[in-house]
Design a protein that fits this description.
The protein has 12 helices and 10 strands. The radius of gyration is 21 Å and the shape is globular. By secondary structure, it is of the alpha+beta class. The protein has 2 domains: 106 residues, no CATH class; 176 residues, q2cbj1_9rhob like domain (Jelly Rolls). It has a 6-stranded antiparallel β-sheet. Helix 3 packs across helix 4. Helices cover 37% and strands 18% of the residues. The structure holds fe (ii) ion (FE2). Fe (ii) ion binds next to loops.
Length: 310
Amino acid sequence: MRSVIYPAYRFSRSVCYVSNMLSEAIKDRLEDREYLDLHLAAIALVAKVGEVPWYDAHFLRRFEAAKLYLAEVAPEYLEGFTAGFAPLRPAASFEICTLNALFDDAVRQEIRAVVQSLSDAQLERHEVKDFGRDVVHDHPFFLQLQRDLLPLVSELAGRELVMGYNFLSLYGGLGQCAPHLDEPMSMYTLDYCIEQSGTWPIHFSKPVAWPGSSAMQAWNEEGLKSDPAMDWTSHELRPNQALLFNGSSQWHYREPITPGGYCNLLFFHFYPADCEKLVRPHLWAEHFELSVLQPLCDIFAAEAENGRLG
Ligand SMILES: [Fe+2]
């Protein structure tokens, strides 16, 4: 491991900002000079990657920060670390799959009854501005549906999967969904249409390599949507149909919904078995058995505790 000396004055403002987020246990670790040096390197490199301009991008932002960090403080581990994410890449043979008539009438009726029973207090409003939707995460009935779907989705994906999470998405008349890649915790998404005012296309790129730091900084929405190399395809869902796609490697978006329309969708997210720590950046030191990553992972954990989950 390289010895890295960071004059504290260069980072005093960052240290103050981050130290406000850190747990008492981490603050104690900062008393150790070696930990402090790595902590300061981690802060500088997280700042260097900066913000990523699309929704759900915290995983890739952290992946880029980790690569920069290892390149600087322990380059001998960089190649193995990067290669370790191969399980989160789709198989070359992966194709989007449409499922017709996913649930029987009784289940469909129960789903609609759950939607109609939701109180204002159950609706999460934090995506009204950017998506024009109310959401509800991991409702017990939808969790049970997701458990029931797990064997089918594993079979379709051609690998053993585990459940990430699910959410109900109630798009209203201002519904839209800008292009983005999902976090690998939602590597495989089953997008189920409950009901809608009319068909509303969703557009997918082919599976692509994860963009690196420079691509992130140069990224722009219109350039992506008009890039022929993305091989965009469009799909329309009807009620009781679902699409299985690979949202962490396929860009996807919806144009604004027809004014005054609505679309109620359920998103069931899955990821590969044995990747429980790999999909959680604050556990990468443990997953890779690399203690040198711990100061960086501690910052990721602090971000998560402070609501920056991604
Ligand atoms: Fe998505």
